[in-house]
Amino acid sequence: MIHSTATVPVNPEGESRLTRAQAWKGLVLKARDARLFLPPGICTRCDVVEESASHIVREATIAGADLREIITFEPQGKVTFFQSTGPREGAIINELFEDADGTLQLRFYCYLGLRGKAPNGPEARAEQEWMSSDKGYKSALLSTLKRTRELLAEGRL
């Protein structure tokens, strides 16, 4: 089982401030269309194929892998990506919360397995190492907030 977590402040010093509502809109937009948030060419398809008030189902091609995700929303707080098909199985969570000082934070955490791979095998260990590195999901959190600021400045959020 792969478990990883990372937390970053939503409003680090030197960056334009995002409200919780603006950060939330960015997370929802990312869930609906990952192409807007990932580096060019990483996500080549991202289609919402089902939606309700509490969730969407999207089919996407990310890093060459086709996947299907059921994405649930806890308004203004949490987006959970359940990977139902693709190379991984499990859940990826993006959560907005205030820390003990009242500072708005964005946290990523996941519980995943790799389909068809041995638990704790070399592939899983490599995936765990990548996710926990500064190039893993911490960088994804930072790029999500950066892109949210850009979309806000462009009037697209």
Structural write-up:
It contains three helices and seven strands; from the N terminus they run E-H-E-E-E-E-E-E-H-H. The chain has helices spanning 20-32, 122-132, 137-153, and strands spanning 2-9, 43-51, 55-62, 65-74, 78-85, 88-98, 104-114. Strands 1-7-6-5-4-3-2 form a seven-stranded antiparallel sheet, with helices on one face. Helix 1 (20-32) packs across helix 3. The longest helix has 17 residues, at 137-153. The protein starts with a strand and ends with a helix.
Structure keywords:
alpha+beta; globular; seven-stranded antiparallel sheet; 157 residues
Secondary-structure element order, as H and E? EHEEEEEEHH
Structural class: alpha+beta
Largest sheet: 7 strands, antiparallel
Q: What gyration radius follows from the Cα positions, in whole Å?
A: 15 Å
Round the mean pLDDT to the nearest integer and report it. 92
How many extended strands?
A: 7
| Spatial strand order of the main sheet | 1-7-6-5-4-3-2
Low-confidence stretches: none
Between the first and last Cα atoms, what is the distance in angstroms?
A: 36 Å
Number of helices: 3
Shape: globular
Task: Tell me the fraction of residues in β-strands, as a range.
Answer: 35-45%
Q: What share of the residues lie within helices?
A: 25-40%
